[in-house]
Amino acid sequence: MTLKIGVIGTGAIGEDHIRRCMQALSGAEIVAVTDVNLDRAREVAEKYAPRAKVPADGEALIALPEVEAVIVTSWGGTHARYVLEAIRHRKYVFCEKPLATTAEDCLKIVEAEAAHGKRLVQVGFMRPYDSGYRALKALIDKGEIGEVLMIHAAHRNQRVGANYKTDMGITDTLVHELDVFRWMLGDDYVSAQVIFPRRSGKAMEHMRDPQIVLLETKKGIRIDVEIFVNCQYGYDIKCAVVGELGEASLPMPPAVELRKSAALSTEIMTDWKERFIAAYDVEVQDFINGVRAGALNGATSWDGYCASVAADACVRAQETGQIEKIEMTPRPALYGG
Ligand code: NAP
What we know:
By secondary structure, this protein is α/β, with parallel strands linked by helices. The protein folds into two domains: 3-127 and 278-300, NAD(P)-binding Rossmann-like Domain (Rossmann fold); 129-268 and 307-325, Dihydrodipicolinate Reductase, domain 2, CATH 3.30.360. The protein is built from ten helices and 14 strands. Strands 11-10-6-9-8-7-14 form a seven-stranded mixed beta sheet, covered by helices on one side. A five-stranded parallel beta sheet has the order 2-1-3-4-5, with helices on both faces. Strands 12-13 form a two-stranded antiparallel ribbon. Helix 4 runs parallel beside helix 5 (103-116) and helix 5 (103-116) runs antiparallel to helix 10. The structure holds NADP nicotinamide-adenine-dinucleotide phosphate (NAP). NADP nicotinamide-adenine-dinucleotide phosphate (NAP) binds at residues 8-14, 34-37, 40, 58, 73-76, 78, 96-97, 124, 126. Residues 8-14, 34-37, 40, 58, 73-76, 78, 96-97, 124, 126 line the site of NADP nicotinamide-adenine-dinucleotide phosphate.
């Protein structure tokens, strides 16, 4: 049976997920789409899912009897409301990151889902679906580099838009590392500190860029992540894991090596959508398969909550310059607590 999905939010990633469900993946079709800008929703429906309904808002879309699962790709501040509504209707929901913009709202979702007694929510953290991170985790799990001691990582964007602020370096950018390292290490964070090196003259007036985030985990692993969102040269994600026996690094995406004019070069991507395009495909296909099988696999509401608590501590650390504690409430049994 084809899974019937409704999508709330038809901006950049909403349109992309609609395209992938209708053209690249199998087992699902988009039967409804909506957006605060209904003209935009109609335009996207026309392009990829001409038979889809366009209800007036997210709540109306969730209530449609034919909608079996929901994808939430609206602005982050609206996520909690739609995810809670989907849980209330006992419908599966894939919510793009962040699960909610406050840890408190993430916890409300965790509690609502735990009260339901079964997973209904998958959070759109796609890096665990990236083949490079999967290979890195497999190697760590096999013990190839012994116990992990440190991670040195960098998240660089070519440039960011005028609305981007320093705290978004954490809530929009670092949040992917916060999730993928928890998954890769099977560990939780206990503290965070943020250091600001010399400011890049290429950053907007109101921004402090780059920044270095220092994390400590329960096992005592130390992680440094450079966030540099106006690096000018490309979209570049780096991660080197240092263990007792060696170092393992995230592979670069495949690129042609060019030997020319006495130089050896490879292209570096500039668009995040391209860098993780395969991971998005595998992630959304896994959601579709998970719903059809009645068992989701991807990031849980609890993972969304943990990322949010850690991000809050990092934002506090930006402001205080101090080491900030990261403390979670007890993990409910539904998530292995
Ligand atoms: P975007 O292009 O601004 O799209 C968001 C869309 O949602 C816009 O069309 C917006 O309309 C609409 N919207 C806002 N409030 C709404 C509401 N109450 N109900 C329905 N629609 C509403 O943003 P985006 O880049 O697609 O990002 C959307 C979400 O995906 C964000 O949470 C973002 O963090 C996440 N995301 C995740 C990844 C990833 O790597 N996993 C990548 C990109 C984005 P207006 O423009 O009129 O406000």
